[in-house]
């Protein structure tokens, strides 16, 4: 392929990196049960040279993480359903077809307050959040398989593990969204 202009110095193609194609329903994508949701890692930091991660999220009714914040950018595009998103203490409803962006360090959470599952794509930049989910979550069979149900002792152990791991992944769990 020839170049028309050399006015911008773009690095050479890194031929060690490969095209990645994943289908969340029938490929080698990893499905993880986390906080009652199921997160499918479509692209990891290993796939994107650490630039971002792409996660297909299945959030059942009542699902969603606790209030938190982290020092990386996060965007969600809703494919199906609607969520209640809380950003710096302000709640709003986000519907299929809409995208929301959470700036780094801002307190936030999302919650499926509806009676139908939500499906959304999540991009975190730079990558790394997928490693938190891998270390914290339980491997499940499919994109919509719910995580194993936890009894009170298992839930307490999960929360303790999340609190201990969060700083390693530049995340802070909050008591309530601010």
Automatic annotation (TrEMBL):
One of its GO terms (molecular function) is dioxygenase activity. Gene3D superfamilies: Jelly Rolls. It holds the Pfam family Cupin_2. InterPro entries: Cupin_2, QDO-like, RmlC-like_jellyroll, RmlC_Cupin_sf. SUPFAM superfamilies: RmlC-like cupins (SSF51182). Residues 57-124 form the Cupin type-2 domain. PANTHER family: PUTATIVE (AFU_ORTHOLOGUE AFUA_8G07350)-RELATED. This is Quercetin dioxygenase-like cupin family protein. It comes from Tunturiibacter empetritectus.
């Amino acid at each position: 392929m020839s170049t028309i202009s050399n006015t911008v110095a773009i690095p050479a193609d890194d031929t060690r990196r490969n095209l990645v194609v994943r289908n969340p329903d029938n490929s080698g994508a990893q499905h993880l049960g986390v906080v009652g949701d199921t997160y499918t890692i479509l692209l990891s930091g290993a796939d994107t040279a650490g630039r971002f991660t792409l996660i297909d999220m299945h959030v059942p009714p009542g699902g969603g993480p606790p209030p938190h914040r982290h020092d990386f950018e996060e965007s969600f595009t809703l494919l199906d359903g609607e969520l209640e998103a809380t950003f710096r203490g302000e709640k709003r409803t986000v519907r299929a077809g809409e995208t929301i962006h959470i700036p780094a360090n801002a307190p936030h959470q999302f919650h499926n307050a509806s009676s139908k599952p939500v499906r959304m794509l999540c991009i975190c930049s730079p990558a790394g959040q997928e490693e938190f989910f891998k270390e914290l979550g339980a491997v499940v069979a499919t994109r919509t398989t719910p995580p194993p149900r936890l009894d009170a002792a298992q839930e307490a152990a999960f929360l303790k593990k999340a609190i201990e791991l969060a700083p390693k992944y530049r995340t802070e769990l909050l008591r309530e969204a601010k």
